[in-house]
Amino acid sequence: MTRDRGFEHPKEPAAVSGQEQRVGPEAPAVAFEDVSLAFDDHVVLRGVTFRVRVGRLTIVMGASGAGKSVILKLILGLLKPDSGVIRINGERIDDMTEVEMMRVRDDIGMLFQESALFDSLTVADNVGYKLYEETDMPADQVRARIEEVLGFIGLEEYIDRMPSELSGGQRRRVAIARAMAARPRLLLLDDPITGLDPITAKTVDAEILKLRDLEHITPILVTHQLPDAFYVATHEVQRQNGRLAIVPAGGRKSEDTEFIMLRDGQIYFVGQAEELLASTDPYLKAYLSGWFPPLVP
Ligand SMILES: Nc1ncnc2c1ncn2[C@@H]1O[C@H](COP(=O)(O)OP(=O)(O)OP(=O)(O)O)[C@@H](O)[C@H]1O
Ligand SMILES: [Mg+2]
Predict the structure, then answer these.
(1) Whose CA is nearest to atom 8 of ligand 1?
(2) pLDDT exceeds 80 at position 15
(3) Structural domains in the chain?
(4) Most buried one in 64, 143, 197, 279, CB count within 10 A?
C-alpha cells in the first residue's frame, strides 16, 4: 500500500494554508503544499505536499534523479517552484526576493551533495565562514565553536590545513562541520554519509542525533545509506550520569523520525521505520531488499 498523508501528524491541526497559517514556534519547520517543478519538459516534482515538524528528523529517500536534492534547493530558495507554496517556520518563501531569502537562509545549514568547500580558505575559515561573515561573534568565540564542531567530527588536528590536503571523506566531514557551526534551526544534509568509512559514518549518525535531541535542531537527511538511516531512526541521545549515551528510542521519541520516499515526482510513502520495514508494497520491498535481504524475504 502506498500512502501519502503529507507528513500530517494526527494530533496536529490540519491545513497549512492561507490565513490559517501560523507563524511562530508551533509552525512546521518546513511545509510544501502542492509543489510542482519542471526543467523544460522534464517534470521533477508534481504536486508534492509534506510537512516537517520542528525537532523531528526527516529522512528523504528515492532513486537517483528522484528529486531529493531539488527539494533541498527549493527549501533554500536556490530554486523556485513552478506552482505551489513553500513555507519555512510558517513564513512563505517561494515568492521571496533574493534579499529576503538571505535572511531566511541565516537559519538554515546546508551540506551540499558535492561538499563544495572554499579551496582557498583553511579548514578553520571554511567552518567559521558564516560566523565570521554574518555574525558579530567575537573571534575567540568563533574559534572555540570551530574547534568544537571539528571535535564532533574528529578533525581537530586538521584545523589549519587547506582543503586540497584532505581526503574526500575528510572534506565531507569539514563540510558537515561547516553546515552545523552556526547552530541553524534547520539543517539540510544531502547524502552526508556516502564516501565515509563505517566508523566515521557512525560518528556522523551520532552527531545528527545529538543535534536533534540536545540542540533541538530540525535535520532533514537525504541518504541512500539505509542502514545508517534506520540506525538514526531508531535511536536517541540521552544524558546518563553526566555522559551522553546513544540508546534505542522508545516511547514518544521513536516517533521523532519520519521517512519520506519520492517516486515519479510524488511522495510515495511517508511513515516511521517500522511501517517502512513492514510495508508489503512491491516497490518499497524491492528498494529495501537490496540493503536488508534478511529482513525483507
Ligand atoms: N538545474 C537543473 N537543470 C535541469 N535539470 C535539473 C537541474 N537540477 C536537477 N535537475 C534534474 O532534476 C532531477 C532530480 O535531480 P536531483 O538532483 O534532485 O536528484 P536526486 O534525487 O538528488 O538524485 P541523486 O540521488 O542522484 O543525488 C534529475 O533528473 C536532474 O537531472
Ligand atoms: Mg541528489
Answers:
(1) 70
(2) no
(3) 55-78+103-289 (3.40.50.300)
(4) 279
